[in-house]
Amino acid sequence: MSIFSKIIDVLNTPLPGTTKKAPGKPLGPTLPGMGGKKDDKPASAKAGGTGGSITGEGKEQAPAADIQAAIRHRDAELAKAAKATDGDSDRNELLAERRRLRELRREFETEVAKQAQAHAEKEETTYTVVPGDTLWAISARFLGNGARWKEIYEANKDKIKSPNLIYPGQTFVIPDED
Q1: 152: part of which helix (H) or strand (E)?
Q2: Cβ proximity of 119 and 55 under 8 Å
Q3: 61-70 in b/e burial notation, b at 16+ Cβ within 10 A?
Q4: N or C terminus: which one in the chain shows less Cβ crowding within 10 Å?
Q5: Which of 169, 136, 127 is nearest to 55 (CA)?
Q6: Is the pLDDT of residue 50 over 80?
Q7: Any residues with CB less than 8 A from the CB of 73 and at least 6 apart, and which?
Q8: Is residue 137 within 8 Å of residue 52, measured between CB atoms?
């Protein structure tokens, strides 16, 4: 399981010690590709976002999720819940969850650093995804045409599960224009 999957699982798990949830409202941040339902649309598609249209499929491409911001948000939620709780066991459970989240953050940062090192050592052109990126935008920037997003996807299939979901910190090989 990748660090990205681990973090997504943690962010989508209800806060420990909380059993009530407002109807229709998620407990934590909802990021593209992190929803619980299979038919969830990416945030950009729901809001009429600016993600590039994936030609031939008619789907909107979601911008990359800001995992660091989601981790900070979840940490703040856990801290607030720990202060508001009455029982020591609930507070201890929330504080243990905060420690686990911090360990995951360090693991995520280590993985991003490894990818950055690999990025620096490669002779081919590579690009590290930042929040708000889409394959369409990366393709427009490096290949001169957003419609060529599929070339980047094909060159990085081992790193991209779905072309609609890319994450900050991922490093992609940019194919030569030849």
Answers
A1: helix 149-155
A2: no
A3: bbbbbbbbeb
A4: C
A5: 136
A6: no
A7: 28, 29
A8: yes
Residue written as tokens 């109807």? 23
Q: How far is CA 41 from the centre of its chain?
A: 15
How confident is the model at residue 145, as a pLDDT?
93
The set of long-range contacts for 163-166, using a CB threshold of 8 Å and a minimum separation of 24, is: 163/54, 163/61, 163/135, 164/32, 164/33, 164/42, 164/54, 164/59, 164/60, 164/61, 164/62, 165/32, 165/33, 165/42, 165/62, 166/64, 166/129, 166/133, 166/134, 166/135
Cα angle: 21, vertex 11, 131; to 5 degrees: 125
Instruction: Kindly tell me the number of DSSP H helices and DSSP E strands found in the chain.
Output: 6, 4
Contact 163, 149 (CB under 8 A): yes
DSSP H or E run through 54: strand 53-54
Give buried/exposed letters for 11-43 (b at 16+ CB in 10 A, else e).
Answer: bbeebbbeeeeeeeeebbbbbbbbbeeeeebbb
pLDDT bin (cut points 50, 70, 90) of residue 54 is very low
CB atoms closer than 10 angstroms to residue 149 = 23
Is residue 65 within 8 A of residue 131, CB to CB? The reply is: yes
| pLDDT at site 57 | 42
Total number of residues shown for the chain: 178
**Three-class DSSP category at 173:** strand
